[in-house]
Design brief:
Layout lengths: L2 H13 L11 H40 L10
Helix pairs in contact: 1-2
């Protein structure tokens, strides 16, 4: 649903008398809300990808450490 569609739906609700015309934001305002919300979702998704990548890298490093050869130290 676009910002314009949302405002049109709100105008239908005005016609039903459930809200007043002055309660409807401008299309530009709704577009800004959508943009901010979408940016927040993108930021959150990026943070989750970074966290997942870090966790996987740490897990792989731990698995590699388990198989590192241990050489005994010999007395001189």
């Amino acid at each position: 649903m676009s910002a314009k569609d949302l405002v049109m739906e709100l105008e239908k609700i005005v016609e039903m008398g459930k809200i007043q015309q002055g309660d409807i934001p401008a299309i530009e305002t709704v577009e800004a809300w959508i943009t901010r919300y979408a940016a927040g979702l993108c930021r959150e998704a990026a943070e989750q990808r970074v966290k997942k990548s870090s966790n996987e890298r740490e897990k792989n490093n731990n698995e590699i450490r388990q198989f590192e050869p241990v050489f005994p130290s010999f007395p001189a």
